[in-house]
C-alpha cells in the first residue's frame, strides 16, 4: 500500500493466553480464508508470547505486516498494519483499543470478563476502525460511545438523547475508575 | 511487571477455562434466534443471541446461504424494538452478514429512518451500515442525507458520513465527487477526527488533479491543522507534491521543506516521526536536509518505548543504504540496541551497523549476529544476509569469516527466499573475490547434497559448470554433481547432466570419465535427461562420431544466450509445424524498447510497477509486416534494425511527418509517416523528394508514393537506398514533401476534381553509425566481457567538457551509441561523482560489442570519460570510438 494513502489498519486481534480467539476483526483481503487468518494469528501469537509487552506496547514484523501488541493478564491485544505504515499511528490505535477495553471492563481486564462482555468488545472494535480507516482514537470517547447503550436496561433508554447517554456513561465510567 | 499474572493453576481449578460460550453450537443458536420473531421482544435476550451469533462468526464458523438469509430476516424484525443497545447489535450483525442486494431492500427503509432520527448515535451508525451494504442505485436516494451528515455539527455523525464516503469512492466515484463542497467545509471542522477524515476524502477525490492537490497542500500547510492524524496525512500529501514537482535542483531550496522541518517540532510523536521519515525519503535528499531528521530519530533510539525505537531504527536503516555517512553519528546509540530485548530492533540495528561500520568492527559484529540468527524471522535473516554480502564486497579481506557465516546459516532451517538470498550472496562473493572461489564452491556443493529447492539446485549446478572447471582441481566436484543424477528429480538430473558436459568440454583429462557417466544417463527414466545425455555425448564426441570443433562445443555449452527469451517465446508460438525447421536466427534480437518515453514528464508515474506495457504490440513485428507488404523490399533480406520514429516537422503544423529508418544489410529504407491535419484538404500522390548529395555512398533505388492522404488518417510513403554491404555507412539527407492538394467541401466531405501541386519543406535526416547497432542485452556482463577477451579491445579517454550533471552525460553517451544498458547501470545514483555504465549491442554483420564507460566529475561540472570497447572485430571497436570522438 502506498504511503500517500490514508493510514490503515489491516486487522485487530484479541487472543487469549493460548492463542485462541476472543475477538478478531480483519479489514483487508490479505487473509481470504479462515485458515489463513488462523495461521496468521498462530504465527503472531507464538512469535510474541515470550516477549514482555505488559508495560509498553511492543512491535514486530511478519511478512509484510507490522504488528504492535500489548498484553494484560491472559489477554493479548494486537493491531496489524502494512509494512509502510507509520508505526506510531498503529501504536495509537492499539492504545485506544487497550484503554477503551479497560474502561469498558471497569479495570477487570481478563479473558473471562472479556467473553462475558463480548458485545462491548465487538462494539468497541467497531467504533475504533471502520473498514480499515481509523475512526476514533480517544479511549474515553470510544468507551462512551459503546457504553451509551450498555447501561442497565432498567433506565428508560429508548428516547435518551446522545448527550444524556454520554452523561450517564461518563458517570458510570467515573464510578468504575474510582473503584 | 504492572499486573501480576493470574496463576495458571488457579485458573484451571476454579473455573476450568470457564467461558459463557462453552459448548456453544451453531444449530442451537440458530434455533434460539427464533426469539427475534416473538411479538413481545425481550431486548436483553435478543442482544445475547446476537452476541452468540457474532461469536460463532468470529470463531470462523460459516453460515450457509439459507441460514444467513433466515438470520437476516429474523434480525430485521428487531428494528421494532426501541432499545438502543439492541439496535447497536443489530447494526453490527447486519454488517457481518453482508446481505445480498435483494435483502438490503428490506432494511433500507428502517435504516433511512434511523439516519434521520433525533438520536445522533442512531444516525452515525445507520449511515455506516447503510453505506456498507448499499449499491449505487440506492446511493442516489440517500445522497442528500449524506451531504447533510458530512457538515453535521455532531462530529460522530460527520465522521461516519466521511469515512463511508472514502469507502464509497472506490465503487461510486462519480457520486462521491459531487460532495466536494461539503467535504471542503468539513476540513475546517474544529473536531480533530472530522478534519482527518475530511482531508483523507478530499484528497482522494482530487488525487488525479495535481494542481488541486498542490493548492490543497499549500493552503493547509499555512493554516492550522489540529489533529495529529490529519497532520500526518498532510505530510504524506506534501511529500507527494514535492515528488511530483520534480524540482531536483539542489541549489535552490526545496518547496515545502520548511513545512516538513517544522513538523519535526510538533508535540505529537506520530507527526514528528512521519515528518522525519518523509524527509529521509525525499528524492536526492542532501545531507543538510537530512540532519534535523536524523537528530530527532536519534533521540527516538533511546526512547523507553519499543515502538518508537523500532520506527526510528527502521528508518535509519533505510537511510544507511543511501547515506551511510549521515547515520554514523547514531552508531553509539545503535550499538546499545544490539542487546535490545526486541529482536526486530536488534536486527535492524545490526544491519544498519553493517552498512555504516568499518573493517575493524566486522568480527565483533559477526559474533553478535550469530547469537540471535536463530530467533528472528526469515525476512530479517534475508536483510542480514544482504547486509553481510555488501559488507564482504566492501571489505574483501574479511571474506573468510563472512563466508563461514554464510555457509553455517545455509545449513540451518529456512524458507526458499532466505536460502536463495544466501546462495545468491555466495555466488556473488565467488565471482568478485577470487580467493573465495574454492571454499565457496565447496559450500555450494555441500548444500545441494541436501537441498529441497529444485530452483536453487539447478542454479547452483549451472554455476558449478561455469566456475568449477576453472579451479585447481575440477575433479573433486564431479562426485557431487553425479550424485544429483541418482538422487534428484528430473529437472535437477537434467541440469546435472549439462553440468557434467561442461566439465567434459572444458577439462580434457576428465573427458573419458565424463563419457562413462553420461552413458549411464542414457538409461534415465526421463526424456529430457536422456536427450541431453545423447546430445552432449554427440557434441563432445563420446559416441565415436565426428567431433565438432572445440570452439563450437564451447560456444554451445558456455556461450551466453543472447536472444531475448520473450522474443524467442513469441517466435516459437508463431511457428507453424512445416517442412521447414525452426530457425533460431530468425528470432528478432532487438530488446523491446520499454516505454521509457516519459523521461520528459517525471511527474507522470507509471500506473503500477507490474503494469504490462499495453502499448502497440511489438513495433518490430509491425514494421516487418509493413515492409513485407511492399514487394520491392522482399529481396532486401532480413531487417536488421528499425529506428525510433523521428520528427521531421514542428508540432502542430499543417502536415506532420515522422521518419523511421529501416536498416538492411545492403539497403536503407526510409519510411515517412505522414498525417494531414487540415480538414479542408485532401492530398494525393504524396512523395518525399530526397536529396542525397551529402550522402555520397548511398544511391536511390526505389520510391513508393502514397496515392491519397485524407484528413487525419495517417499514411506511409517509402524511399529505399542502396549502400555498401555490411558497412555502417553514414550520410545526411534533405527532404521535401511533394503532393497534389485538392480542396474538400467541409459540409459534404467531397473533394474537388482539380488539384494544385505543392511542396512542403521537411527537416533533414541523418543516418548515423548508431543506426547500425542493435540494442541487445547480455545477462551477465562480466562473464560476457571476460569471454570476449582483450584481443580486439580499444581503450581511450575523452573529456566531455562542462555538463549539466553526470546523469545527463551518461544519457547522452548511451543515446549516441544506441546500445543496451546492462544491469541497470544507466541509472546514476544522485550526488555521485563517478559512475560506470555497461552497454552491449550487436553491430551490423552480427558482431557483438560490449562497452564499459567510466565517468568521473573533474572539477565542478566537467565530465571525463574512459571508454573501453571489446568486440569480435577490431574495426568495429574502432568504429565505436569514432562515434564517440565525432559525437
UniProtKB/TrEMBL annotation, chain A:
<dbReference type="GO" id="GO:0030126">
    <property type="term" value="C:COPI vesicle coat"/>
</dbReference>
<dbReference type="Pfam" id="PF01217">
    <property type="entry name" value="Clat_adaptor_s"/>
</dbReference>
<dbReference type="InterPro" id="IPR022775">
    <property type="entry name" value="AP_mu_sigma_su"/>
</dbReference>
<dbReference type="GO" id="GO:0006890">
    <property type="term" value="P:retrograde vesicle-mediated transport, Golgi to endoplasmic reticulum"/>
</dbReference>
<keyword id="KW-0333">Golgi apparatus</keyword>
<keyword id="KW-0931">ER-Golgi transport</keyword>
<feature type="domain" description="AP complex mu/sigma subunit">
    <location>
        <begin position="9"/>
        <end position="147"/>
    </location>
</feature>
<keyword id="KW-0472">Membrane</keyword>
<dbReference type="InterPro" id="IPR011012">
    <property type="entry name" value="Longin-like_dom_sf"/>
</dbReference>
<comment type="similarity">
    <text>Belongs to the adaptor complexes small subunit family.</text>
</comment>
<keyword id="KW-0653">Protein transport</keyword>
<dbReference type="InterPro" id="IPR039652">
    <property type="entry name" value="Coatomer_zeta"/>
</dbReference>
<keyword id="KW-0813">Transport</keyword>
<dbReference type="GO" id="GO:0000139">
    <property type="term" value="C:Golgi membrane"/>
</dbReference>
<dbReference type="GO" id="GO:0015031">
    <property type="term" value="P:protein transport"/>
</dbReference>
<comment type="subunit">
    <text>Oligomeric complex that consists of at least the alpha, beta, beta', gamma, delta, epsilon and zeta subunits.</text>
</comment>
<comment type="function">
    <text>The coatomer is a cytosolic protein complex that binds to dilysine motifs and reversibly associates with Golgi non-clathrin-coated vesicles, which further mediate biosynthetic protein transport from the ER, via the Golgi up to the trans Golgi network. Coatomer complex is required for budding from Golgi membranes, and is essential for the retrograde Golgi-to-ER transport of dilysine-tagged proteins. The zeta subunit may be involved in regulating the coat assembly and, hence, the rate of biosynthetic protein transport due to its association-dissociation properties with the coatomer complex.</text>
</comment>
<keyword id="KW-0963">Cytoplasm</keyword>
<protein>
    <recommendedName>
        <fullName>Coatomer subunit zeta</fullName>
    </recommendedName>
</protein>
<keyword id="KW-0968">Cytoplasmic vesicle</keyword>
From TrEMBL, chain B:
<keyword id="KW-0963">Cytoplasm</keyword>
<dbReference type="GO" id="GO:0030663">
    <property type="term" value="C:COPI-coated vesicle membrane"/>
</dbReference>
<dbReference type="InterPro" id="IPR017106">
    <property type="entry name" value="Coatomer_gsu"/>
</dbReference>
<keyword id="KW-0813">Transport</keyword>
<dbReference type="InterPro" id="IPR012295">
    <property type="entry name" value="TBP_dom_sf"/>
</dbReference>
<dbReference type="GO" id="GO:0016192">
    <property type="term" value="P:vesicle-mediated transport"/>
</dbReference>
<protein>
    <recommendedName>
        <fullName>Coatomer subunit gamma</fullName>
    </recommendedName>
</protein>
<feature type="domain" description="Coatomer subunit gamma C-terminal">
    <location>
        <begin position="770"/>
        <end position="884"/>
    </location>
</feature>
<feature type="region of interest" description="Disordered">
    <location>
        <begin position="593"/>
        <end position="618"/>
    </location>
</feature>
<dbReference type="InterPro" id="IPR009028">
    <property type="entry name" value="Coatomer/calthrin_app_sub_C"/>
</dbReference>
<feature type="domain" description="Coatomer gamma subunit appendage Ig-like subdomain">
    <location>
        <begin position="622"/>
        <end position="767"/>
    </location>
</feature>
<keyword id="KW-0333">Golgi apparatus</keyword>
<keyword id="KW-0677">Repeat</keyword>
<comment type="similarity">
    <text>Belongs to the COPG family.</text>
</comment>
<feature type="domain" description="Clathrin/coatomer adaptor adaptin-like N-terminal">
    <location>
        <begin position="27"/>
        <end position="540"/>
    </location>
</feature>
<dbReference type="Pfam" id="PF08752">
    <property type="entry name" value="COP-gamma_platf"/>
</dbReference>
<keyword id="KW-0653">Protein transport</keyword>
<dbReference type="InterPro" id="IPR011989">
    <property type="entry name" value="ARM-like"/>
</dbReference>
<dbReference type="InterPro" id="IPR037067">
    <property type="entry name" value="Coatomer_gsu_app_sf"/>
</dbReference>
<comment type="subunit">
    <text>Oligomeric complex that consists of at least the alpha, beta, beta', gamma, delta, epsilon and zeta subunits.</text>
</comment>
<comment type="function">
    <text>The coatomer is a cytosolic protein complex that binds to dilysine motifs and reversibly associates with Golgi non-clathrin-coated vesicles, which further mediate biosynthetic protein transport from the ER, via the Golgi up to the trans Golgi network. Coatomer complex is required for budding from Golgi membranes, and is essential for the retrograde Golgi-to-ER transport of dilysine-tagged proteins.</text>
</comment>
<dbReference type="GO" id="GO:0015031">
    <property type="term" value="P:protein transport"/>
</dbReference>
Amino acid at each position: 500500500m502506498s504511503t500517500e494513502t490514508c493510514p490503515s489498519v489491516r486487522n485487530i486481534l484479541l487472543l487469549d493466553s493460548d492463542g485462541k480467539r476472543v475477538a478478531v476483526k480483519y479489514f483487508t483481503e490479505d487473509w481470504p480464508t479462515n485458515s489463513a487468518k488462523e495461521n496468521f494469528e498462530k504465527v503472531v501469537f507464538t512469535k510474541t508470547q515470550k516477549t514482555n509487552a505488559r508495560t509498553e506496547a511492543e512491535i514486530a514484523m511478519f511478512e509484510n505486516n507490522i504488528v504492535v501488541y500489548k498484553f494484560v493478564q491472559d489477554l493479548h491485544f494486537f493491531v496489524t498494519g502494512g509494512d509502510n505504515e507509520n508505526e506510531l499511528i498503529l501504536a495509537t490505535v492499539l492504545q485506544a483499543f487497550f484503554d477503551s477495553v479497560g474502561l469498558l471492563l471497569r479495570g477487570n481486564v481478563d479473558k473471562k470478563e472479556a467473553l462475558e462482555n463480548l458485545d462491548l468488545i465487538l462494539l468497541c472494535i467497531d467504533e475504533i476502525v471502520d473498514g480499515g480507516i481509523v475512526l476514533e482514537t480517544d479511549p474515553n470517547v470510544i468507551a462512551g460511545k459503546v457504553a451509551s447503550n450498555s447501561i442497565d436496561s432498567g433506565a428508560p433508554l429508548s428516547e435518551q438523547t446522545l448527550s444524556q447517554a454520554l452523561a450517564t456513561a461518563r458517570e458510570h465510567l467515573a464510578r468504575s475508575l474510582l473503584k | 511487571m504492572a499486573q501480576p499474572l493470574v496463576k495458571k493453576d488457579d485458573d484451571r481449578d476454579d473455573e476450568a477455562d470457564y467461558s459463557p460460550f462453552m459448548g456453544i453450537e451453531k444449530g442451537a443458536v440458530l434455533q434460539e434466534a427464533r426469539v427475534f420473531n416473538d411479538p413481545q421482544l425481550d431486548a436483553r435476550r435478543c442482544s445475547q443471541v446476537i452476541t452468540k451469533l457474532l461469536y460463532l462468526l468470529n470463531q470462523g464458523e460459516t453460515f450457509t446461504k439459507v441460514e444467513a438469509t433466515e438470520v437476516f430476516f429474523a434480525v430485521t424484525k428487531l428494528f421494532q424494538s426501541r432499545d438502543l443497545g439492541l439496535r447497536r447489535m443489530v447494526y453490527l450483525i447486519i454488517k457481518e452478514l453482508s446481505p445480498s442486494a435483494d435483502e438490503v431492500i428490506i432494511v433500507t427503509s428502517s435504516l433511512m429512518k434511523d439516519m434521520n432520527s433525533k438520536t445522533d448515535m442512531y444516525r452515525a451508525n445507520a449511515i455506516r451500515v447503510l453505506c456498507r451494504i448499499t449499491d449505487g442505485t440506492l446511493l442516489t436516494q440517500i445522497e442528500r442525507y449524506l451531504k447533510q451528515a458530512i457538515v453535521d455539527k455532531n462530529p460522530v455523525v460527520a465522521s461516519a458520513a466521511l469515512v463511508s464516503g472514502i469507502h464509497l469512492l472506490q465503487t461510486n466515484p462519480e457520486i462521491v465527487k459531487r460532495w466536494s463542497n461539503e467535504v471542503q467545509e468539513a476540513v475546517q471542522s474544529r473536531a480533530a477526527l472530522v478534519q482527518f477524515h475530511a482531508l483523507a476524502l478530499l484528497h482522494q477525490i482530487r488525487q488525479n488533479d495535481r494542481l488541486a492537490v498542490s493548492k490543497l497542500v499549500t493552503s493547509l500547510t499555512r493554516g492550522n491543522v489540529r489533529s495529529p492524524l490529519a497532520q500526518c496525512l498532510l505530510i504524506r500529501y506534501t511529500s507527494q507534491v514535492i515528488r511530483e514537482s520534480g524540482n531536483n535542483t539542489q541549489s535552490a531550496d526545496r518547496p515545502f521543506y520548511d513545512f516538513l522541518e517544522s513538523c519535526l517540532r510538533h508535540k505529537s510523536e506520530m507527526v514528528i516521526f512521519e515528518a522525519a521519515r518523509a524527509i529521509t525519503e525525499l528524492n536526492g535528499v542532501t545531507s543538510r536536509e537530512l540532519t534535523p531528521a536524523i537528530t530527532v530519530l536519534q533521540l527516538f533510539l533511546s526512547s523507553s518505548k519499543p515502538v518508537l525505537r523500532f520506527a526510528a531504527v527502521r528508518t535509519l536503516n533505510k537511510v544507511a543504504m543511501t547515506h551511510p555517512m549521515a547515520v554514523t553519528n547514531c552508531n553509539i546509540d545503535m550499538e546499545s540496541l544490539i542487546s535490545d530485548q526486541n529482536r526486530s530492533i536488534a536486527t535492524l540495528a545490526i544491519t544498519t551497523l553493517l552498512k555504516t561500520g568499518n573493517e575493524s568492527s566486522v568480527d565483533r559484529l559477526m559474533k553478535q549476529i550469530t547469537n540471535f540468527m536463530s530467533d528472528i524471522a526469515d525476512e530479517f535473516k534475508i536483510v542480514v544476509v544482504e547486509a553481510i554480502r555488501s559488507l564482504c564486497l566492501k571489505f574483501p579481506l574479511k571474506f573468510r569469516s563472512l563466508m563461514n557465516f554464510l555457509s553455517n546459516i545455509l545449513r540451518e532451517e529456512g524458507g526458499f527466499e532466505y536460502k536463495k538470498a544466501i546462495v545468491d550472496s555466495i555466488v556473488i562473493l565467488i565471482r568478485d573475490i577470487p580467493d573465495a572461489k574454492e571454499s565457496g564452491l565447496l559450500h555450494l556443493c555441500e548444500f545441494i547434497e541436501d537441498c529441497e529447492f529444485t530452483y536453487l539446485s539447478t542454479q547452483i549446478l549451472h554455476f558449478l559448470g561455469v566456475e568449477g572447471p576453472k579451479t585447481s582441481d575440477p575433479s573433486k566436484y564431479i562426485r557431487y554433481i553425479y550424485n544429483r543424477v541418482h538422487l534428484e528429480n528430473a529437472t535437477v538430473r537434467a541440469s546435472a547432466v549439462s553440468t557434467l558436459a561442461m566439465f567434459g568440454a572444458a577439462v580434457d583429462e576428465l573427458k573419458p570419465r565424463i563419457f562413462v557417466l553420461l552413458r549411464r544417463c542414457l538409461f534415465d527414466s526421463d526424456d529430457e535427461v536422456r536427450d541431453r545425455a545423447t546430445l552432449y555425448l554427440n557434441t563432445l564426441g563420446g559416441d565415436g562420431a565426428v567431433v565438432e570443433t572445440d570452439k563450437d562445443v564451447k560456444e554451445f555449452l558456455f556461450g551466453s544466450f543472447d536472444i531475448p527469451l520473450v522474443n524467442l517465446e513469441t517466435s516459437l508460438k508463431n511457428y507453424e509445424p512445416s517442412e521447414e525447421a525452426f530457425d533460431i536466427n530468425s528470432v528478432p534480437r532487438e530488446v523491446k524498447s520499454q516505454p521509457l518515453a516519459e523521461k520528459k514528464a517525471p511527474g507522470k508515474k507509471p500506473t503500477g510497477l507490474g503494469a504490462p506495457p499495453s502499448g502497440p504490440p511489438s513495433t518490430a513485428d509491425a514494421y516487418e509486416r509493413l515492409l513485407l507488404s511492399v514487394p520491392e523490399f522482399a529481396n532486401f533480406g532480413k531487417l536488421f534494425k528499425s529506428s525510433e520514429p523521428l520528427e521531421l516537422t514542428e508540432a502542430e503544423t499543417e502536415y506532420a511527418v515522422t521518419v523511421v529508418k529501416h536498416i538492411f544489410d545492403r539497403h536503407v529504407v526510409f519510411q515517412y509517416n505522414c498525417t494531414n491535419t487540415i480538414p479542408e484538404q485532401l492530398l494525393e500522390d504524396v512523395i518525399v523528394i530526397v536529396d542525397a548529395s551529402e550522402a555520397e555512398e548511398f544511391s536511390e533505388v526505389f520510391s513508393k508514393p502514397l496515392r491519397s492522404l485524407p484528413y487525419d488518417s495517417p499514411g506511409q510513403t517509402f524511399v529505399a537506398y542502396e549502400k555498401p554491404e555490411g558497412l555502417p555507412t553514414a550520410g545526411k539527407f534533405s527532404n521535401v514533401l511533394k503532393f497534389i492538394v485538392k480542396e474538400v467541401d467541409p459540409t459534404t466531405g467531397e473533394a474537388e476534381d482539380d488539384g494544385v501541386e505543392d511542396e512542403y519543406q521537411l527537416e533533414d535526416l541523418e543516418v548515423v553509425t548508431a543506426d547500425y547497432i542493435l540494442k541487445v542485452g547480455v545477462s551477465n556482463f562480466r562473464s560476457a566481457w571476460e569471454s570476449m577477451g582483450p584481443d580486439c579491445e580499444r581503450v581511450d579517454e575523452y573529456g566531455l567538457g562542462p555538463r549539466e550533471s553526470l546523469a545527463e552525460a551518461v544519457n547522452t553517451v548511451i543515446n549516441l551509441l544506441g546500445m543496451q544498458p546492462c544491469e541497470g547501470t544507466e541509472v546514476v545514483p544522485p550526488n555521485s561523482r563517478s559512475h560506470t555504465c555497461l552497454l552491449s549491442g550487436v553491430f551490423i554483420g552480427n558482431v557483438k560489442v560490449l562497452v564499459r564507460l567510466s565517468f568521473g566529475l573533474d572539477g565542478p561540472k566537467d565530465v571525463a570519460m574512459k571508454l573501453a570497447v571489446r568486440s569480435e572485430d577490431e574495426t568495429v571497436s574502432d568504429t565505436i570510438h569514432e562515434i564517440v570522438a565525432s559525437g
